[in-house]
Design a protein that fits this description.
- By secondary structure, the chain is mainly beta.
- It is 7% helix and 41% strand.
- It has helices at residues 89-97, 161-164, and strands at 2-3, 10-14, 19-23, 26-37, 42-44, 49-51, 56-57, 70-71, 77-78, 83-84, 102-106, 113-119, 125-130, 136-150.
- The strands form three sheets. Strands 2, 3, 4, 7, 8, 11, 12, 13 and 14 form a nine-stranded mixed beta sheet that branches. A three-stranded antiparallel beta sheet has the order 1-5-6, with no helix packed on it.
- The protein is globular.
């Protein structure tokens, strides 16, 4: 059993049911389950279960509709700036999903640009609680994640590690 400590949380991608594929010569993946732990949460890697000690479930607090598309959802290292861009974009989009019904994002990569769809399937649940510094923190479990090249409306699919780990070429879009 592991316990989450600190300010930023722990992101876990469960690939047990993942379905990698290829469409038009480009990588896709679906069936990824994401869990995000914040201070005080625990995770049992053998059982693949999380507990959210003392936090309140967010079930029933959703407002109908989608949250706006997040551009640069995966972050990347910008050589010109010398640091990572939009580091928490994916996590913040996933957290926002628990107050809505669906969330999407795109990468800054092009040729192709990848899109990510985040949805709450069976078993997905968000939790809210206050950490040791008095900050409200949101944790979640079993968020459905899928990634695919865009535009491909029927399969806007994703995995958090795709952009972060540098799958594909990083080329900034021309403004």
């Amino acid at each position: 059993m592991s316990i989450a400590l600190g300010q930023n949380g722990v992101f876990i991608a469960n690939l047990t049911g993942a379905e990698p594929d290829e469409k038009s010569g480009n990588w896709t993946i679906s069936g990824v389950k994401a869990t995000y732990l914040t201070e005080g949460d625990t995770y049992d890697p053998l059982m693949k279960t999380a507990t959210f000690g003392g936090k309140t479930s967010l079930k029933g607090s959703e407002v109908p509709g989608e949250i706006p598309n997040t551009e640069n959802a995966f972050s990347y290292f910008d050589d010109d700036l010398g640091n990572w861009t939009n580091q928490r974009a994916f996590t913040n989009t996933a957290i926002a999903l628990f107050g809505s019904t669906m969330a999407t994002g795109t990468s800054l990569e092009s040729d192709p640009t990848y899109g990510v769809a985040l949805t709450k399937g069976l078993g997905a649940e968000g939790f809210s609680g206050v950490d040791g510094l008095g900050q409200t923190r949101v944790s979640f479990k079993d968020l459905d994640v899928a990634i695919a090249p865009t535009p491909e409306p029927s399969s806007l699919l994703g995995l958090v590690g795709a952009g972060v780990l540098g799958v594909g070429l990083r080329r900034k879009r021309q403004q």
